[in-house]
Amino acid sequence: MAVYSEVLSKARLARDASRVLGSASTVDKNRLLLMITEAVQNEQQRIIDANEVDLDNLKQKDGYSAAFHDRLLLTEQRIEAMAEGLRQITALEDPVGEVTGMRTRPNGLLIGQVRVPMGVIGIIYEARPNVTVDAAGLALKAGNAVILRGSSEAIHSNKVLVQIIREQLLKSGLPEDAVCLIEDTDRAAARELMRLNGLVDLLIPRGGRSLIKSVVENSTVPVIETGAGNCHVYVDEGADLEMAAAIVLNAKLQRPGVCNAMETLLAHREAAKDFLPAVLPLLLEAGVEIRGCPRTQSYHPAVKEAVQADWETEYLDLILAVRVVDSLSEAVDHINSYGTMHSEAIVTRDYDRARLFLNSVDAAAVYVNASTRFTDGFEFGLGAEMGISTQKLHARGPMGLQALTSLKYIIYGSGQIRP
Amino acid sequence: MAVYSEVLSKARLARDASRVLGSASTVDKNRLLLMITEAVQNEQQRIIDANEVDLDNLKQKDGYSAAFHDRLLLTEQRIEAMAEGLRQITALEDPVGEVTGMRTRPNGLLIGQVRVPMGVIGIIYEARPNVTVDAAGLALKAGNAVILRGSSEAIHSNKVLVQIIREQLLKSGLPEDAVCLIEDTDRAAARELMRLNGLVDLLIPRGGRSLIKSVVENSTVPVIETGAGNCHVYVDEGADLEMAAAIVLNAKLQRPGVCNAMETLLAHREAAKDFLPAVLPLLLEAGVEIRGCPRTQSYHPAVKEAVQADWETEYLDLILAVRVVDSLSEAVDHINSYGTMHSEAIVTRDYDRARLFLNSVDAAAVYVNASTRFTDGFEFGLGAEMGISTQKLHARGPMGLQALTSLKYIIYGSGQIRP
User: Which domain holds residue B365?
Assistant: First the structure.
């Protein structure tokens, strides 16, 4: 008998399991999700014990950051949040089985499309162990099997979480291989997963830029690129400057470390005259470092000089690039040149310019008079989120359950043959 | 000034052109398409002259096949067919601008999605020069710029066709770089195109297996995999055997060299008893070589022994693998194991088994009581086709204009900020 690698053998098992999950009823899937919810709550101590092993191992290493430690840490409260996430996923409508576009062709063939699970979804992610439960819950609800590949730092936490899920799969009569964890945390194992065309239908990387880049560059399995957000707010000539200030402060300060936070502020030269003298001190007071174009620098002595790299950088920090532009079209060009097609906003009072901005900015989410911070599965009413896609293929913006499904054509005939 | 490669400089020009095409009106795009249609007809001689250079060059080479020569050849009739294809594309509804799912969130934000062009689409294809006009027409109608990379054998034909299209773009006031041809037919140029993330939004390979494999393996730009079809017809216990014979003969013989032709016939052991003795002679008479399992061999002495590879092979030829199975579920397992998720059919009289087959076969198009040969953009009512996707991401089955678009979220606010 052939001996397969861990990745290949688990992918084969997941593929088989996906056939069963794909035809599981909504009732069965929801019962499973509630069983996992309860198990996660009941096994709190087991999870925390495993997590402590990961945290202890981390402490042996040099130079880990407090932020990294925090991402790895599981507490009672965070475990409760996982359970709450599962309950929310359970409550979502099942996307599988929806039929669209059914119509009879002139030859009598009845042709339409039915929404089906994607099949086997691979998730490659970094330290946060809550992704394990979150991603598994979403994948299962949409009828998929999932292969999880977390980081070495979280391996003990991930093992216990996956074991808890698999115990409930077994108990519920569904195949436990619907959720598989790759325990080999070597880079080669991840590379192998990225090349399993035919066994893995979709790969979603969740984590920092270098992780996503590595998956996009090495994967032959279809990938959904997520994450990077170099987002802009453009304050138009004649905008309500009070509204503009509220949006700018919110987009920069409400949570600076996330992908939908603003990284560059663009102001029309006419708006800049009153707006920048008013808003720059507020940003500086809040601890934001401002890097501006020469015209921006003329509005406040604390503004540092922006260089080319500033227009291209997703700071994820209390730093803001600011540029004064001569026109709406210059703002749009700046965004389409430097943006990462994530979330872009205009603040304006002008109907035509709002329309023009909406039409000409090439991004997953384009806003008029609102903060970019709303780009999020919950805020958009999807009820949950598997990440925010910044590519145009398949899914763009926040990905809910529907992004984890595909459409297949079904054709009802009565003996038709092609003439 | 930096000097860019042909591929990179054309991709940059195409990206800029795509911004203009993306907001062109349906009226403008249709006028352009009709201008190209007329130009293709008026410039017939210019096209045929260029094609003759390609054909002459081909004759200098050793070992080219008659089939290859035929794929490369352009005739008056074929040029008329190109023009007719463009007229059909012109008549199709423009998918761009459709708005879906608009709803007001509790905080007053009005959120929905608008259908937008994909942006820049790269097409990598083989000898047939009619793909040049066809692909450009579809891409333009959906508001995209297109970068074409044909094969060296068709370079003179492709150059003239692209020049004719670009002349009409210029005349119509739209940017001529909306259609670019990579004239460097070296493999390295194709590889460069496959890695232009950020400039190219989508790559579609059109051609044989090795071309598609090469694009899937080397591309970091999102790809839609097209083509390979190892399709099955399963004749169920109790099926109408006359209908089954008509479908089997059609699926195998109507055009054996295409991706939606049947490559393996599966017969339930009860159906096989009457069906195989009746249909095998008809197939053999039509010149089909039959490779069967032992039970199939017992029904006709001319049936050769099938080996493992036969279940996996897309013959595209007058060869058919035949297997007798003990149950519907064995047929489904066979299809899900060996199929390429293209087109699969059951012939049955049983309602529940029809349902089960539709639900459990994992393919782009699943048929009850009809020939697999219908999997085609025109037959499905899409009006045109950019290829048949065999992946699950974004588009599955025949791809029409909608597959060349994406959805972007548009959000209308009144000053909302995230609490």
Answer: 231-374
